[in-house]
Write a structure and sequence with these properties.
The chain has about 350 residues and is mostly helical. The chain folds into 3 domains: about 100 residues, Potassium Channel Kv1.1, Chain A, CATH 3.30.710; about 50 residues; about 120 residues, Four Helix Bundle (Hemerythrin (Met), subunit A) (Up-down Bundle), CATH 1.20.120. Helices cover about 50% and strands about 5% of the residues. The protein contains 12 helices and 4 strands, in the order E-E-H-H-E-E-H-H-H-H-H-H-H-H-H-H. A 4-stranded mixed sheet has the order 2-1-4-3. The radius of gyration is 36 Å and the shape is elongated. Its main location: membrane. Keywords: Cell membrane, Ion channel, Ion transport, Membrane, Potassium, Potassium channel, Potassium transport, Transmembrane, Transmembrane helix, Transport, Voltage-gated channel.
Length: about 350
């Protein structure tokens, strides 16, 4: 029997109903009897003063703890907290009086041994998962700063985050740090009565700072970062080639072939780029003294200076040997440091 009449169908469906159709009288699939007590329990109304933890006996207080976070209750054995004595929940075990308990939690119910915390229940679920199975994950829907506050409150170290979540967490924190730095710069400029956009020099310095220090700020920053990585890669390959036995023998004899000279040219170009990069970072720095005191700045200086020292020594030797054929390896040591710094 068709459900919808066609163009040439003259069948009258007006008198058809579920009551008149005998095809609806039988059951299509046999109904199997449920096994109650295995996957099913009869529902019952819980009185207002009872909850799912009503089976919690007074004797169990020595072995379990009830945590109420944001109105959600959790039953947790004391043994779970033995491995985390420095956390906020772990310190509850060492409380000896009511005042000590209130220094850790917001409220405490003596009758049922229930501790109350006025915190984010969503974030606490991740904390509870870490206490139970040792897995600490970052909630995607939660702000990284709020999650950091929750970790500090519960006494959980950031290093316990899984590597994937930790990487995303650190990226978010770096973004917040950059935003705060920009806000501080704007506030400082407003207090001094000068903004960066008021002068052409200030605008150029701001663009230079974005290009050198913030690769994600725009196309110039990305190009600058790619060039830095490219020259570091070329330096690593050039140093590897310079360690070939034939070239080492030429250096020991004080000779310099065409290949040795080409290596010297490539090395000079790379050092020139590193020197330019160092000067740009020095120019855009607000505090020159603070910039020179940075550890990475000292590494850059140690990486660049040996090359110029080697050229100076070769120049004062009276031209008896070519620049790349000397026995001074300070420039190569400096370039190795530059590769490690990158």
């Amino acid at each position: 029997m068709t459900l919808m009449p066609g163009e040439n169908s003259d069948y009258d469906y007006s008198a058809l109903s579920c009551a008149s159709d005998t095809s609806f009288n039988h059951t299509f699939f046999p109904e199997s009897e449920t096994l109650k007590g295995v996957f099913y329990q009869r529902a019952r109304l819980v009185p207002p003063r009872q909850d799912v933890l009503q089976g919690f006996q007074p004797d169990d207080r020595k072995h379990h703890i009830i945590i109420n976070v944001g109105g959600i209750k959790y039953l947790l054995p004391w043994t779970t907290l033995d491995e985390f004595p420095l956390t906020r929940l772990g310190q509850l075990k060492f409380c000896t009086n009511f005042d000590d308990i209130l220094n850790i939690c917001d409220d405490y119910d003596v009758t049922c041994n229930e501790f109350f915390f006025d915190r984010n229940p969503g974030a606490f679920r991740t904390i509870l998962t870490f206490l139970r199975v040792g897995k600490l994950r970052l909630l995607r829907e939660m702000c990284a700063l709020s999650f950091q506050e929750e970790l500090l409150y519960w006494g959980i170290e950031e290093d316990n985050l899984d590597w994937c979540c930790k990487r995303r967490y650190l990226q978010k924190m770096e973004e917040f740090t950059e935003i705060n730095e920009r806000e501080d710069d704007l506030l400082e400029n407003e207090t001094t009565g000068e903004t960066v956009e008021e002068t052409k020099i200030g605008l150029c310095m701001r663009k230079l700072q974005d290009m050198v220090e913030r690769p994600q700020s725009g196309l110039p920053g990305k190009v600058f970062a790619c060039l830095s990585v490219l020259f570091v890669t070329i330096t690593a390959v050039n140093l590897s080639i310079s360690t070939m036995p034939d070239l080492r023998e030429e250096e020991e004899k004080g000779e310099c072939s065409q290949m040795c000279y080409n290596i010297f040219i490539v090395e000079s170009v790379c050092v020139a780029w590193f020197s330019l990069e160092f000067l740009l970072r020095f120019v855009q720095a607000r505090s020159k003294l603070a910039f020179l005191r940075r550890p990475l700045t000292l590494i850059d200086m140690v990486a660049i200076l040996p090359y110029y020292i080697a050229l100076l020594v070769d120049g004062t030797s009276g031209g008896s040997r070519k620049p790349s054929s000397g026995n001074i390896y300070l420039d190569k040591v400096g370039l190795v440091l530059r590769i490690l710094r990158a």
